[in-house]
């Protein structure tokens, strides 16, 4: 019996098999949904972006003034909040996030209300659906990113998919609750007057349950907003990417600013969704019906405005000169610097470049399946060996941009009296501060702990790249002992007096190259852009200078442009 209990049930393998079957057998359907969904969301985000910010702010203020019964509080809040977002250069991110929230909330409501009705009408359906909702609400939201990427790749569509799954339960539950709480006597009165089941639902139950239904809609909208940051991990653009970048780089100020942007949008969406139920608390006799002519006029004007704006969005979607390129990268200092510089160069050559931040494994997958055109952060032959082994035959290896000058290692301040990993005994509470659990650097650090007998009692504290550098900076400022798992190129070698410890066992690996990977077919589709990516090479001093300027607070685009202006000869070699 004990042996049986110790046998691990292959649940993970079963889930993997199901997902693999779905991706293989329904790939055509997923591709169609991805194309349609991406097109719709591109048009919507481009439509919003095409409206001058001042005009959109003015329209929202006017709408708020009438929606909130000509009170001034909400219009003033919108004015201050949206002007703040515009001032902080977050307007484009806001438009992407607003698109995600609107589309995801709409889909969740369209699914949630009918399912809630089914639950209210059938006790058997409730028994089946309720446990499913329990799982959906309690499952860690990060888990939804995995099937989202498997089915739809990267971008807005998988972000919407994950958001809908996470956010639909409140609408379902509160629709069910609202209908079930309708007074039985009122239902019986409807039946006695000869009303059909459909008439009873439409004219009695739904109107009386409206308060609960709109409460569910409000909660669904708020839960979609809570997925903004998480969805950015799979390339969903918007305010979430700014928050994620700030967390990974430990930029407190930037994180606060983007967080405030999310809060402003959340408050506005919360108040507007609550206002949809503006007749709550009133008897049916107190509610003034809207004249039919006014409904037709408002509906016609709204439809006309949507059509005009959609045309504007569709036109603005095709503004690229030589074509559109997507560069995938991870939110690590070296990749941010490298990708931003080459993106600036490509844009100067007439390309419309989109930078998409992803986790390392997803960057490989995005380029391999053609959703991104290139990535410039593959560390080979060691750090990203597993990713390259899995997907290398689906990638075009353009060679190194930094040839055998990259290195992982254990780093300490120069004032510590150790020169080799073998010298470590009880320094820094026998703790190595590392980065993200899934990073190649972390795997190397774990292998190093196993390779050295003197590190038997040591532990690797995984965190993030930003947390690691913050811990290093804090310890150096107080001249305390600290041991971190780091890499070069990195701005810490320009900012601090630190050193790599010798690694006689080679646990952290040897010298590596940072390699550019392109999707198959890019050479034929965009030969000039492909050639620039193929020509791209620079030195450690180049990348570290850009990284340091970014770390000191300069906007990445500005830092990249500064380097380009200071190094015209190197750029000329790339674009020739």
Automatic annotation (TrEMBL):
Compartments reported by the entry: Cell membrane; Membrane
UniProt KW keywords: Cell membrane, Membrane, Transmembrane, Transmembrane helix, Transport
Record's bilayer topology term: Multi-pass membrane protein
InterPro entries: ABC_Gly_betaine_transp_sub-bd, MetI-like, MetI-like_sf
Superkingdom in the source lineage: Bacteria
Claim: Cell membrane is one of the keywords in the record: yes
One of the record's GO cellular component terms: ATP-binding cassette (ABC) transporter complex
TM helices/strands, residue ranges: 48-68, 75-91, 97-120, 141-168, 222-244, 256-276, 296-315
PROSITE patterns: ABC_TM1
Keyword Repressor in annotation: no
One of the record's GO molecular function terms: amine transmembrane transporter activity
Family statement: Belongs to the binding-protein-dependent transport system permease family. In the C-terminal section; belongs to the OsmX family.
Name of the protein this chain belongs to: Glycine betaine/carnitine/choline ABC transporter substrate-binding protein
Native organism: Tetragenococcus koreensis
Gene label: proW_3
């Amino acid at each position: 019996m004990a042996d049986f209990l110790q046998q691990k049930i292959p649940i993970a393998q079963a889930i993997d098999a199901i997902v693999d079957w779905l991706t293989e057998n329904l790939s055509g359907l997923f591709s169609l949904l991805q194309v349609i969904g991406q097109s719709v969301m591109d048009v919507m985000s481009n439509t919003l972006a095409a409206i001058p910010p001042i005009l959109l702010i003015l329209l929202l203020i006017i709408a708020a003034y009438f929606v909130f019964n000509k009170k001034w509080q909400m219009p003033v809040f919108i004015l201050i909040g949206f002007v703040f977002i515009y001032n902080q250069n977050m307007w484009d991110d806001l438009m992407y996030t607003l698109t995600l929230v609107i589309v995801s909330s709409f889909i969740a409501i369209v699914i949630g209300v009918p399912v809630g009705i089914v639950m209210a009408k059938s006790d058997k359906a409730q028994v089946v659906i309720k446990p499913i909702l329990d799982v959906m609400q309690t499952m860690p939201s990060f888990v939804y990113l995995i099937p989202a990427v498997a089915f739809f790749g990267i971008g807005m569509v998988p972000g919407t998919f994950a958001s809908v799954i996470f956010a639909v339960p409140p609408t379902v539950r509160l629709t069910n609750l609202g209908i079930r709480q309708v007074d039985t006597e009122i239902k019986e009165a409807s039946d006695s007057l000869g009303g059909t089941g459909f008439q009873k639902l439409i004219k009695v139950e739904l109107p009386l349950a409206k308060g609960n239904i709109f409460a569910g809609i409000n909660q669904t909208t708020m839960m979609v907003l809570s997925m903004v940051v998480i969805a950015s991990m799979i390339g969903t653009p918007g305010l979430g990417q700014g928050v994620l970048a700030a967390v990974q780089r430990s930029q407190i100020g930037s994180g606060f600013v983007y967080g405030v942007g999310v809060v402003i949008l959340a408050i506005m969406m919360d108040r507007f969704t609550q206002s949809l139920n503006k007749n709550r608390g009133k008897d049916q006799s107190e509610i003034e019906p809207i004249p039919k002519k006014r409904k037709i006029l408002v509906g016609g004007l709204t439809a006309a405005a949507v059509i005009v704006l959609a045309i504007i969005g569709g036109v603005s979607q095709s503004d690229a000169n030589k074509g559109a390129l997507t560069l995938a990268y991870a939110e690590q200092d070296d990749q941010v610097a490298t990708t931003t510089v080459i993106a600036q160069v490509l844009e100067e050559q007439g390309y419309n470049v989109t930078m998409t931040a992803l986790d390392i494994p997803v960057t490989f997958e995005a380029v391999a399946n053609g959703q991104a055109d290139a990535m410039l952060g593959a560390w080979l032959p060691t750090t990203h060996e597993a990713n390259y082994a899995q997907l290398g035959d689906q990638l075009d290896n353009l060679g190194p941009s930094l040839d055998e000058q990259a290195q992982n290692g254990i780093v300490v301040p120069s004032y510590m009296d150790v020169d080799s990993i073998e010298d470590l005994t009880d320094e820094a509470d026998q703790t190595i501060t590392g980065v993200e659990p899934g990073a190649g650097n972390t795997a190397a650090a774990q292998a190093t702990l196993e390779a050295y007998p003197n590190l038997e009692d040591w532990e690797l504290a995984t965190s993030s790249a930003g947390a690691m550098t913050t811990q290093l900076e804090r310890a150096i400022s107080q001249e305390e002992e600290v041991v971190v798992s780091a890499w070069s190129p990195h701005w810490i070698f320009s900012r601090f007096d630190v050193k790599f410890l010798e690694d006689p066992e080679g646990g952290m690996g040897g010298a590596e190259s940072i390699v550019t990977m392109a999707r198959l077919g890019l050479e034929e589709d965009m030969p000039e852009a492909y050639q620039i990516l193929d020509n791209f090479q620079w030195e450690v001093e180049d990348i570290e200078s850009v990284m340091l300027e970014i770390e000191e607070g300069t906007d990445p685009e500005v830092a990249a442009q500064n380097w380009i202006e200071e190094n015209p000869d190197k750029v000329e070699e790339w674009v020739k």
